[in-house]
# Entry
Amino acid sequence: MCLTEISCPECQSTNYRVHVTYQTQSGEVREEYRCLECGRYFAETTNTPLARLRTPLSKIVLVLESLNEGSGINAVARIFRVSKNSIYSWMERMAALKEVLMLYALCPQFLQTVVEGDEFYTRVHENRPPAESEGWTIVLKERATRFLWELQCGERNETFFRNAMQTLAQVIAQTSDLTLVTDGERRCDNLLFAICRETIRIGKLGRPKTTLPEKVKVSLKNKGSQAHQSGPKRPKYQAPIPEHPNTQQDFPDAQIHANHLEAFASSMRRRLACYRRRTNTYAKSQPALQRRLDVYWVFHNFIKTHFTTKKVPALALGILDAPLSWPQLFSIQLFTPN
# Structure
């Protein structure tokens, strides 16, 4: 599977030839093809984020990079002299790539993975108590490569956590040995157990034991003081849900933390204006906030070189052989409705 491979939008065939070469209004030279299987004519930008766009790609890239470096929508619109509706349209086109890239990321088999889980929040539309905010953001991040498996916002309820755990269950299916490390959020563990648990039958009478799949570990660090709590004290580090008997719980206590995600939360407040505190640049709606997060997910995983690993996260994880450039990213064909 090649991300940038061009295929016919009608029959998905790669058997085509160049029909004509043309020049856009911005001076870019593009090609139009003719499919040798079904006879359809299509341009190289058909069914890609660049389809029917007249703005040069270089300008779109500058706008999106500015948004991902902390500038707000209004500031970017003033600096580059573009309308906010155009910026929203470009963001929607880039955010649409997340579905394709996520499926591509779940194709390889991973030997060992350590995933950190944590959440933080921002204001949406108006200043509300944190419990009522729609700006809660759950993050699942691969520790070694800094690849973001999940970056989703919404109201802090069971559906919000269940969607993230379903993504993690897909990662578990592609991983031989996975460890989830959470920083005090027990709801993630319980929902993951409900989604991907398996039953062990040993031939004895009684209810069969239910555990996590083999070689899947969940480690939790209990946060906060328990001095005023009645009953037995919880251990500081624990595996809160039953694990498979063949799974070795050899993860050291010192590694049970979400420090990388704490640093990532600080970085997000610098890089995305809608997460910056004490300003009026917070998100105006939950779908708009999710769109910003989807754009940043694509940018972080497939474009940006991480300052610690010195690699693009998708390259460090083994998903890509070489980092993607902006033109390659915008040449990826999107899914077509049936």
